[in-house]
Structures are given as C-alpha cells and as structure tokens.
Amino acid sequence: MHEKEVKSILSAQNGMNIYRGCTHGCIYCDARSTCYQIQHDFEDIEVKSNAVELLEKALRSKRKKCMIGTGAMSDPYLPIENKLQLTRQCLELIDEYGFGLAIQTKSDLILRDLDLLRSINKKSKCVVQMTLTTYDEELCKILEPNVCTTKRRAEVLNIMKEEGISTVCWMTPILPFINDTEENIRGILDYCIKAKVYGILFFHIGVTLRDGDRQYFYQKLEEHFPGMKEKYRKTYGNDYEIFSPNNKNLADLVRRECRKQRIVCGTKQLFDYMHLYEDKQAGVQLSLFDL
Ligand code: SF4
C-alpha cells in the first residue's frame, strides 16, 4: 500500500472511495479498466490518507443532510481496513453528523462496524449492498478469490435483516458459459428471499469487458477454464457488453421472482432509494440527493 493526500473526497453525487485499487481479486473486475487511469499496481492499494479530515470538512459545510455512498470503485472493507480503520472513522463522522449511508462491499469485515450501521440507521437510513454472483462455493473461490464467499455474504445479509438494516444485492456480473445457469440464479435468489433484501440490482445477465479489465479476465480464464478465452473471443469479439445466451430467460426469472417476493429490481427505483435521505428522528423524508 501507499498513501496519498487528495484534494477532495466526496463526488458530486456524494459518493466516496477511501481506497484506490483492490485486493479481493475478482477475475471480472471493471475497476481494472484503463479508462480509470490507475497509475499504480491494482493490488498496491492507494490509501487516501486525509480522507477522514476531508469528509469532516465536507459534512460540516453541507446545507442539507443526504445519503453518503461508498464502495462503488473500491471495497471499503479491504483487509488493510482491519488495521487502518479509515472506513470506520468515516462512518463515525457520518453517524455523528446525522447523514445517511449506502455502503457496498463483498466482505464480512463490515460486521465489525455493526454498532455504527445500527446507529446511523436509527437516525437516518443505512443501506448495505452485497454482491452475490455465484451460488457454487468452489466456483466463487475462483471468481472472487480473496474475500469471503457467497454463503458468508448471505449470512451478513441475514444479520442486517435481524438488525432492521435495509439491504440490496448486486447480482452482477453473471459470466456467460460459467455461472449463467438457472441453478445459480435460483440459488442466489433463495439467499436474497431468506434475507428479505429490499432490492436486487442487475443490469443484464452478463458482464462488461473493456481494456485492462478484459486482459486480466482472459488471463484468469486461461488459468482456470481451458478453452473459455477462445469461446469468448469467437462469441463476443471486442464487445463491451457481453450478454449471456440465456439473458432473456434468466432476467425474466429474476423479475418474476422479485415481483412474487415484493423485492424491488428496477434499476432507477433502487438507485433513487439509495439516494433518498431519511430523517427518522424528525419522521420526515427529505429530497432526492443533496439538491
Ligand atoms: S471487490 Fe470490486 S473492486 Fe475489488 S476486485 Fe472485486 S470487483 Fe474489483
């Protein structure tokens, strides 16, 4: 890891990434794409050393409370967070200043901060988002090798349910010819139904690949799935959006089950929900985003 002082921490939509790069090792990682211009090794995590200080300044100067998002580009619960506790300190500020939180991770390290999630959720709204792509535990260890597997992530979702904390499952990406099966989708859906998730986010049954991300993905396909790289090349060429041949059937299945179980799966609806600040103490819902 290496440290860097940055100029700002919150994006225009109030999202933040405390770390840059990731060590979870997902073979399909979009954050590796060259368009993001990461200048260091992806596993050599850049730590925004003044993140906490900048966040406090930003929260103090906001005229209105809003949801703060984190986890879009780098997991806030990387193993180094165990020691550095920067995510924890940022959560403490969000709690102290009465803001809401929409946090995304694949790691059960989030349970360390349950006290803060609970407290934020009491005053405002806390939404925990977990990515579940692969029901088969052995396959999951290949696709997402350095983080807890789907079964454990589903346990985290269940713990959040017990705590009354709202959850959203990111059911993406699903890899063509690897885990784009009804069995896999039904397995993930079962976890979501048991955990009473608020929503399931998916864009299509497939994956996106672009420069940087594609090379790493193909290298891992060669290591773990002989012949698969050629199959992808022949089927998809250099396409950015890679659709499973089962896209329609599987997407219909997810939508049907969500309707039956009253799980929200509309992308816009879910993003709106995660941006909608709630002031539970005042019993009032405030505006979308921090307009
Ligand atoms: S957790 Fe996200 S950022 Fe990290 S390797 Fe996996 S896909 Fe990439």
TrEMBL record:
Source taxon at top rank: Bacteria
Pfam hit, one: Radical_SAM
Record domain Radical SAM core: where: 8-238
This protein's record includes keyword DNA repair: no
Keywords assigned: Iron, Iron-sulfur, Lyase, Metal-binding
Recorded GO MF terms: iron-sulfur cluster binding; lyase activity; metal ion binding
PANTHER family referenced in this protein's UniProt entry, alphabetically: ELP3_MIAA_NIFB-LIKE RADICAL SAM CORE DOMAIN-CONTAINING PROTEIN, SLR0285 PROTEIN
Protein name, per record: DNA repair photolyase
